[in-house]
Amino acid sequence: MELKKPSSKLNRSLERGMEILRCFKPGMNLLGNSEIAERTGLAPSTVSRLTQTLVLSGFLEHDKQKSAYRLAPTVLSLGHAYKTSSQELRAIEPLMRKASEKLKLNVGLAVADRLEMVYLESIRYTKKTALRAVAAGQRVPIERTSLGRAWIAKLPPKNRLELLSQLQASGIKNWSQIEKEIKNAITSMTERGYCIATWLPEISAISTFVEFSNGKYASLNFSTPAESDLSNYLEDYVQALFELKDKIESEIIKINHS
């Protein structure tokens, strides 16, 4: 994705460096300069200079045999620092875990990052508690998931139109159908406070939003474990979703007034 025209207040080199780091996602562990240039729209010479800088700064590692780069452990430490320093996430996680165990559903909390949703916390339900995985940092499509559609519905109308235009311009397959589903989700959020979506064939989810401090918010969802027979009964969990939303918002209020 080509970079937007920067504000005069931004440091151009720093912004470009962050764009390079954004290129690395699950399944894209090794990227060469030419691949990075293609993904960012930056000149190859600029990419070469910035990747060298990121290696020296400890954010990228260079694989000499493959002439490519991978993220360095420093990036992981930043994510860990964010999670452990957030009072809100520390208070929310036990509530999400308890709901997951009680309802036998996955419970997720996510925010938007451009055209994707990023999990702040994700509790995956399994009968074998010891094997439960927490996938904070995982990304999912904003346009296909209930998390993303709940987020879109919460946006101010102007911002929502801008985002929908960006999604359309990104070349998403079956956009007309997806746009229709997004509009139905917006109507559902407006009238009922939640929306439902089936992103993958075996996983359905129901989402609402949670108010954070300073006008910020996140999307909260329940989703069915893979190969579950709960997808046709998700609306039975609406009340439980709203109860969890209320508990989370109450904890956030306590934290901000403590």
From TrEMBL:
- Single GO molecular function: DNA-binding transcription factor activity
- Gene Ontology biological process terms in this record: negative regulation of DNA-templated transcription
The record places domain IclR-ED at: 74-254
**Which keywords, in A-to-Z order, does the entry hold?**
DNA-binding, Transcription, Transcription regulation
Offer one Pfam family short name for this entry.
Answer: IclR_C
Q: SUPFAM superfamilies, alphabetically?
A: GAF domain-like, Winged helix' DNA-binding domain
Boundaries of every HTH iclR-type domain copy: 11-73
Query: InterPro entries of this UniProt entry?
Result: GAF-like_dom_sf, HTH_MetabolicPath_Reg, Tscrpt_reg_IclR_C, Tscrpt_reg_IclR_N, WH-like_DNA-bd_sf, WH_DNA-bd_sf
Q: What is this protein called?
A: IclR family transcriptional regulator
